[in-house]
Amino acid sequence: MIPALLGIILITFILSRVLPGDPAVMLAGEQAPPDVIEKIRQDMGLDKPLYSQFFDYLGMLARGDLGDAYHTGHSVASDFASRFPATVELTLFSILIAIIVAIPVGVIAATRKESVIDHISRVFSLIGACVPIFWLGLILIYIFYSKLGWAPPPMGRISGELNPPTDITGLYVLDSLLSADFVALKSSIIHLLLPAICLSTGTMAIVARMTRSSMLEVIGQDFIRTARAKGLRESIVICKHALINALIPTLTVLGLQFGYLLGGAVITETIFSWPGVGGYITDSILAADYAPIQAFTLVSAVLYCLINLAVDLIYGLVDPRIRYE
Amino acid sequence: MTVMSTASSPGQQKSAPKPARFLRLLLRNRLAAIGLGFIVLWTIAAIVAPWIAPYNPYVPDMAAKLQPPGGAHMLGTDNFGRDILSRVLYGARISIWTGLIAVSISFVIGVPLGGIAAYYRGRTETIIMRLLDVLLSFPSLVLSMAIAASIGAGLFSAMIAVGVVGIPEFGRLMYGQTISLREKEYVEASRSIGVKDRVILLRHILPNALAPLLVQATLGMGFAILTASSLSFLGLGVKPPTAEWGAMIAEGREYIISGEWWLVTFPGLSIATAILGFNLLGDGLRDVMDPRLRSGK
Question: Which residues in chain B touch residue A8, judged by CB atoms under 8 angstroms apart?
Answer without folding.
Answer: 134, 137-138
